């Protein structure tokens, strides 16, 4: 029987977005991205390789994983088996403390945790950079969840130089997010399909790559200055520029829902009243509000008429991968 290893990885929200792959197989992005790891949302994954198994056994939130999920995770485990020269199947138990596939980057924490637990269970001792490279092969955003705090995924050009690096792992200033969970159902258009369609058909996509890449040094400078207003402005611009590419795709599509626009309107109104708050969105309807802890009560009060308390989740900067 092999050793059982459990790893925890937290999800992250990109402030400068990743949208589009120049190499879909290796998940090499067209542009670099920069995120904040969150403490509230995480995945715990336990992996054990065993001579007793005749196939991978994968459970997800206490139930046997569906065929699509099992296939994707087994293919990822194949990467670990190949690297470790280990011809054994694995038992995998994953508990996801993130609304699945609803724009809250559940795949980021999921594949970061699987990479960490799986590689160590297979006898590999990977450094953070190599772990980030491995996690990227499961989900692009997972490459950033290896680290805590603010993290940059350097786009690179190949499997060796596309990985994440920490920008500020210990966040010692007042910044957090309110996640407004509008919809925890499976997305109608998966991120991968949406990206591929946008890259192939949007006439604005080259401009997106150029502006996203240029925003990275500006965001890093804002983080160093601990300037929440500049961080928020840059994040809001990046989110809306990304979503503009989906509206210009053929056929056009959007992840917005009516409640999305309502949440954005509340944030804009608060800002007109002098509150430092900004919105961002990934590939899903949910809105995340960038703000300070000091102003969070006022923001929650303004959102309360439109959303239930269960829909409003406050998250602070979170840690990188750990082992339980």
TrEMBL record:
Residues 178-311 form the Mvd1 C-terminal domain. It is an enzyme of class 4 (lyase). GO terms for molecular function: ATP binding; diphosphomevalonate decarboxylase activity. Keywords: ATP-binding, Lipid biosynthesis, Lipid metabolism, Lyase, Nucleotide-binding. Residues 9-164 form the Diphosphomevalonate decarboxylase-like N-terminal domain. The keyword Nucleotide-binding applies. It comes from the Bacteria. Its EC number is 4.1.1.33. One of its GO terms (cellular component) is cytosol. The keyword ATP-binding applies. One of its GO terms (biological process) is isopentenyl diphosphate biosynthetic process, mevalonate pathway. Belongs to the diphosphomevalonate decarboxylase family. This is diphosphomevalonate decarboxylase. It comes from Latilactobacillus curvatus JCM 1096 = DSM 20019.
């Amino acid at each position: 029987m092999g050793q059982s290893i459990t790893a925890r990885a937290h999800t992250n929200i990109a402030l400068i977005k990743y949208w589009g792959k120049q190499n879909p197989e290796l998940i090499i992005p067209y542009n670099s991205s920069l995120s904040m790891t969150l403490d509230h949302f995480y995945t715990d994954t336990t992996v054990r390789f065993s001579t007793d198994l005749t196939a991978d056994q994968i459970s997800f939130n206490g139930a046997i994983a569906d065929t699509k999920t099992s296939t994707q995770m087994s293919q990822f485990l194949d990467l670990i088996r190949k690297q470790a020269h280990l011809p054994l199947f694995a038992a995998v138990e994953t508990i996801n403390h993130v609304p699945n596939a609803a724009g809250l980057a559940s795949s980021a924490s999921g594949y970061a945790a699987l990479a960490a637990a799986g590689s160590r269970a297979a006898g590999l001792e990977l450094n953070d950079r190599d772990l980030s490279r491995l996690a990227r092969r499961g989900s692009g955003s997972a490459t950033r969840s290896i680290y805590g705090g603010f993290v940059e995924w350097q786009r690179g050009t190949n499997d060796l130089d596309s990985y994440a690096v920490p920008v500020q792992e210990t966040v010692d200033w007042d910044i957090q997010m309110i996640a407004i969970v509008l919809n925890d159902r499976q997305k109608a258009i998966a991120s991968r399909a949406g990206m591929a369609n946008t890259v192939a058909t949007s006439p604005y996509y080259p401009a997106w790559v150029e502006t996203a890449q240029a925003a990275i040094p500006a965001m890093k400078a804002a983080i160093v200055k601990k300037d929440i207003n500049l961080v928020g402005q840059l994040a809001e611009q990046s989110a809306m520029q990304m979503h503009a590419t989906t509206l210009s795709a053929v056929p056009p599509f959007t992840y917005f829902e009516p409640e999305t626009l309502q949440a954005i309107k509340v944030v804009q109104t608060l800002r007109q009243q002098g509150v430092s708050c900004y919105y961002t969105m990934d590939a899903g309807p949910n809105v995340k509000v960038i703000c300070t802890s000091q102003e969070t009560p006022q923001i929650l009060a303004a959102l309360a008429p439109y959303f239930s308390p269960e829909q409003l989740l406050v998250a602070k900067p979170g840690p990188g991968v750990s082992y339980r």
